[in-house]
Every structure is written in C-alpha cells, then in structure tokens.
Amino acid sequence: MGSEVVGAVLSAGAEFSLTGKADPIFNISTVEEIPGAAAPVVVEKTLGAVFEHTEADAAVIFCVPSAAMQDIRTCMKHGVVPVIGTTGISPEDLEEMRSLAKTYGVGAIVAPNFAIGAILMMKFAAEAAKYLPAVEIIELHHDKKLDAPSGTSIKTAQMIAAARREDFKAAGEDTCARGENLDGVHIHSVRLPGLVAHQEVIFGGLGQTLTIRHDSIDRKSFMPGVLMALRHARGLKEVVYGLENII
Ligand SMILES: NC(=O)c1ccc[n+]([C@@H]2O[C@H](COP(=O)([O-])OP(=O)(O)OC[C@H]3O[C@@H](n4cnc5c(N)ncnc54)[C@H](O)[C@@H]3O)[C@@H](O)[C@H]2O)c1
To answer: What is the reported pTM?
Structure first.
C-alpha cells in the first residue's frame, strides 16, 4: 500500500509534494531522486528519522498493525497529521489520539477503508438498517491479511447498530460457526489467496433479502480516498474516524 501511495501522490502533480518515506525494510538512511518528485525524498527506517531531515504537513500510514500507534504518536508530536490506513485501531487508540490532538493541536484521520465504493456500501447499509434490522456481514480478503474481522466490517457493524430503530437477536448466537458478534451484527471472515478486499452486507426481511456488495479488485481502488483524506488533512485539528465523515 505504501508503494501505491507514493505513486498516487506523485501522479497528483503539484497539489502535493512527497518529502519522505519510512519503512524498516530500508537498509540505509538516504536521499532518493524520484522521477516526478519536486525535491529529493528522504528515506529512513522510521518516521521519527524522516521528520529530523524534512518537513511534512501529513503522513500516510500503512504500516503493520503492531507499529501503527507508535507512528501515530510520532506524527502528532511533530505536528504532522497522520492519515491512517492500517486496520486494527481500537476505541482506546482513538481515545489516545483525541487526547494527543488536544495536547499538540493537530488532528488525525483514521480510515478503515479508503475505497469510495466501500464507504457508499457502509452508508447504504446504515440506511437499510432502519428498515431491515436482520443483517449479517461476510468479509473476504487475501490470505496475507493479519487482522480479522476486517476494520471495514467492524465499522459497518457499528454504523448499522447506530442506525437500527429496533433490536434484532440473530438465531444460534452461541456457536463459533455463526461468526463474530459485534454490536449485535454477525461478521464472517473469509481469507483466501486470489482475493483482494470484498464485503457483502446481507439484510433479511419478510420473504425478501437485500444484498449490498463491494469489491476492491485492485489496490489502486484505495488511492482516490487517500488523496481526498490528504486534502482534508490540511490544518485539521480533530480526529476523524471514517472517510464517510469527509466524503
Ligand atoms: N484502509 C484501507 O483502505 C486499507 C487498504 C488496504 C490495506 N489496509 C491495511 O493497511 C495495512 C498495511 O497493509 P499492506 O497490504 O500494505 O501490508 P504490507 O505487509 O504489504 O505492508 C506493511 C509494511 O509495514 C512495514 N512495517 C513493518 N514493521 C513496521 C514498523 N515497525 N514501522 C513501520 N512500518 C513497518 C513493512 O515493512 C511493510 O512494508 C494493513 O493493516 C491492512 O489491513 C488498509
């Protein structure tokens, strides 16, 4: 995802300038001449080291889940808005970010899914939940995905639960075959090679079902949302959780 972001930022032209890249896989601290970049790009193992050598208004974070909070703290302490794609961000992490935002006067954007179609899927699901409270989510991802259920399915379940006008109790709550129960919404996670990122939200009603499905078939699907978040990051002072709040 990091490589995709580099490509997307460079192809956006003069609106953005790429100043640095951080990943522990980079063996040496260096400065890279990248075609399309306005100036040489600082390359370091950590974000902290990047900020020692160059300035930034925002940093896009797609690191492994275990490193995300450390990177977020580094950004906010440096007055840089983190735009976070890494999934597995907990409610406690969001609370810490809100506190950091107050302390350092800088916001953050957390987006469990940057694909515009996935945001629409979540919004449509929240709308349908007002009329059809019986619902289950099936999320399907590539076999390298570390977390389950996916951040998108968790966010969808939260939005459905908040929009429901009446409680619904799904049948057979107590067997693992019924998946994870989140806010009363059952989530089933599929992990297979060949998949990218897909989700079905299936509503059931009297004699009918409604299926809302989104498929990311290429990692490029996330890039328009990343650029949208970067535009919103300018001067941001609060924590935004979910791209549906800025679309
Ligand atoms: N929000 C979205 O729309 C969206 C889309 C795709 C993926 N994701 C999430 O983004 C994250 C990354 O996905 P990916 O497919 O690029 O994974 P990846 O495994 O290809 O890349 C993760 C990168 O993090 C680096 N890394 C490892 N340790 C690190 C550390 N301590 N500090 C900083 N970086 C470190 C790795 O070297 C690697 O380059 C996952 O959590 C994934 O679920 C989110």
So the answer is: 0.89
